[in-house]
Design brief:
The chain is of the alpha+beta class and about 160 residues long. The protein has a domain of about 60 residues: Wheat Germ Agglutinin (Isolectin 2), domain 1 (2-Layer Sandwich). Helix content is about 55%, strand content about 15%. The chain is built from 5 helices and 6 strands. A two-stranded antiparallel ribbon has the order 1-2. Strands 3-4 form a two-stranded antiparallel ribbon. A two-stranded antiparallel ribbon has the order 5-6. Helix 1 packs across helix 2 and helix 1 packs antiparallel against helix 5. It starts with a strand and ends with a helix.
């Protein structure tokens, strides 16, 4: 029975717990299978997810009509899912809108959506974005005028849920 020290967890393990590596002097990877799998899940999954999202966003911008047709077809087939998403989105916005907003501040929020609609009529694909996301990983923003901006759809989609 051969053993090797894993460079990830620093444990001395049986060589059966290491992946083979022809380039290595001893014929095994420098990290055990568990450490390698953990590394792949954290490192590659995050990078490839971001890369795919960027690729998808670019495709949507370059194939606007095809993308819209696909989305319309999906919405037709999945009305129940779309309704649930819309219900959750509205509830999230309602919970993120403080009760202490003045009437003028509420009008400013409506103004953002009105301007975005007018810009879209000019042929520029845009969205109203929350600078600090309403449902962020680390912080949650509020549905208030000073947390809103108008971005192109591409910019908003590549921004993701980051702050």
């Amino acid at each position: 029975m051969n053993t090797k020290i894993c460079k990830g967890c620093l444990a001395e393990l049986d060589t059966e717990l290491f992946y083979a590596d022809k380039k290595s002097l001893d014929g095994f990877r420098h990290k055990c299978k568990l450490c390698m799998n953990l590394y792949r899940k954290t490192h590659y999954a995050t990078k490839s997810r971001e890369k795919e999202a960027l690729k998808s966003s670019k495709w949507k911008v370059n194939n606007r009509e095809l993308s819209r047709a696909y989305c319309a077809k999906w919405r037709q087939r999945n009305k129940h899912i779309k309704a649930e998403h819309e219900r959750v989105r509205k509830a999230r916005n309602k919970n993120a809108k403080p009760s202490w907003l003045s009437a003028e501040q509420k009008k400013k929020i409506q103004w953002y959506y009105l301007v975005a609609g007018l810009v879209r009529k000019q042929g520029i694909d845009c969205q109203v974005d929350h600078i600090v996301p309403l449902l962020g990983l680390e912080v949650c923003g509020l549905h208030v005028p000073w947390n809103m901006q108008i971005l192109t759809t591409y910019e908003n989609q590549t921004k993701h849920n980051k702050h």
